[in-house]
Amino acid sequence: MESQAPTGSLSPLMSLTLVLILPLLSLSLLGRWKVPPPFPRDVPWPSGGDGLYARIRAFYRGWPSGRRNLSEGYRKYNLQGQPYIHATPSLRPQVILPVKDFEWMLQLPDSMLSVQEVMNESVGLAHLLTGRSATPEKIATIAINQHLTLGLDRIQQDLVNELHLSLDQVLGQDTDNWKSLLIFPAMEKVITQIATRVLLGLPLCRDEGYRRALVRCMHRFGAGMVVSAQLLPWFLQPILSIFFRIPLRSSFRELSSYTEPLITHWLARIEQEDRGVKSLDTSESLPYNLATTFIRVSRKFLDHGNLNGRELTNYINQISALPFGTLIPSASSMLFDLASHGHQLGLYQDLQREAVEALGCDAWWEDLGSFKKLRLIHSCIQETLRLNPIALHASNREVIHSDGLTLPTGQHLPRGTWVGASTMDVNLDERFYPNPMQYDPRRFLSERQPTESQKIDRLTTTSTFLSFGAGRHSW
Predict the structure, then answer these.
(1) Residue 446 has what DSSP assignment?
(2) Rounded distance, CA 213 to CA 170, Å?
(3) Are 347 and 215 in contact (CB under 8 A)?
(4) Tell me: the pLDDT tens digits for 107-158?
(5) What is d(CA 2, CA 303) in angstroms, rounded to the nearest whole number?
(6) Which candidate, 136, 134, 122, 121, places its Cα nearest to that of 33?
(7) Do the beta carbons of residue 335 and residue 183 sit within 8 Å?
(8) d(CA 193, CA 171)
(9) Are the C-beta atoms of residues 317 and 129 closer than 8 Å to each other?
(10) H/E run at residue 400
(11) Any transmembrane segments, and where (predicted)?
(12) Does 459 fall in a domain?
């Protein structure tokens, strides 16, 4: 006689289903959900067609970069002065503006458009770094402005020393013989070492264990940003980002094992100074770096009683790990371009001559005016960024006004819509750049005459050079 399963018991299939679904439901409740608005009805789609299949095809055509959609829309609509919808795997409505409307957009106030809202979603800050608030970002902006802009003369010699040391370590000091070099790892070491010198100073900037931990953290954040924030639909991002958030938090804990003792010590020293108490440790002066500047600014904006070393460490670790993921590839691309074209264009000799004339003496390295004379080097950097922009669509902003935004062309965008410009297509537009596909390291020399040295740099303001964005919030 066959036995029967007790009434009320779950089948193996149902048990497995519950095991899979319950964690996802829990993650869904814990995730940050931001439902996007509907797509604007009067803005065209470059793929054409209004059917469901045509729209789905548009979202994943050219996956993962979406370059095909951007180029087609630019040729079909932007060149005619019209905006178009850029369909991406995130399924969020994004409108790409023509240059003339993009210039108009840059003049709009922050009460109409928000950069931070786009950053939260497009690079995964809202999902990968949960619990963030706007206050530390404001503090970081003030600290960076004070330290790197107003106080640049105080750290310039440190930067020069670290640059010389890191380049000697990577390139060697043999100037008579060529050597093979892996450019990306070399730039990774140089930039992270110099950046850490500015942020945390000696001796941590030369600690190879800390540098490797920093690089791992950057790589994990980069992977999480691309996959969870750009390649997944918006409704899956809060759920699946957990798989990137766990290793990223592990990396931040590893960074904290190096930085928290230092930051806690510096916080205690600064608190003593503010109370007028002299430190018993007279053998070591308090260093001047971005971390100590951040601590001082934080004490002005935050409640002193609630300020602690661990909280400050978390903020400072994020500052150290997140910004350099774009700088390293850009520096590597510049060296690739120089290595690929330098011989044919006679570029090496001209660059060396310019460097000797501007920085031939040690004392000239301490003069900020010396770096303004590096016009050819600056032009090479701009040309590389023109051909290798950091992002395919730049200066994205989110419409945050409750009434939405009406474009000069008449289309109305609901609140929550993203607007921006197609970086690569603008940078390769023959109307703005003759022979745009050609690498010309001297292309920007005529635009930087000595009489214009006091003007705002075209690199960060023009609507036809978008590699670092444009307007008040350019990178």
Answers:
(1) G
(2) 19
(3) no
(4) 999 899 998 888 888 877 788 887 676 677 788 888 888 777 777 778 888 8
(5) 72
(6) 121
(7) yes
(8) 14
(9) no
(10) none
(11) 12-31, 221-244
(12) no
Q: Residue holding tokens 């979406």?
A: 66
DSSP state for residue 230 in the 8-state scheme: I
Identify whether 364 is part of a domain. no
CB of 459 closer than 8 Å to CB of 471: no
Domain hosting 259: range is 134-321
Q: Is residue 1 classed exposed, middle or buried when 0-12, 13-18 and 19+ CB atoms within 10 A define those classes?
A: exposed
Residue 272: alpha-carbon gap to chain centroid: 36
And the tokens for 5? 């399963």
Contacts of 367 by beta carbon, 8 Å cutoff, 6+ apart: none
For residue 134 the two structure tokens come to 């706007």
Is residue 232 one of the residues assigned to a domain? Answer: yes
Tokens linked to 215: 């690089």
Q: Number of folded domains in the chain?
A: 1
For residue 34, count CB atoms less than 10 angstroms from its CB and return exposed for 0-12, middle for 13-18, buried for 19 or more: middle
Structure tokens at 415: 């609140």
Residue 204 covered by a domain: yes
Pairwise pLDDT comparison (66 vs 203), residue with the higher score: 203
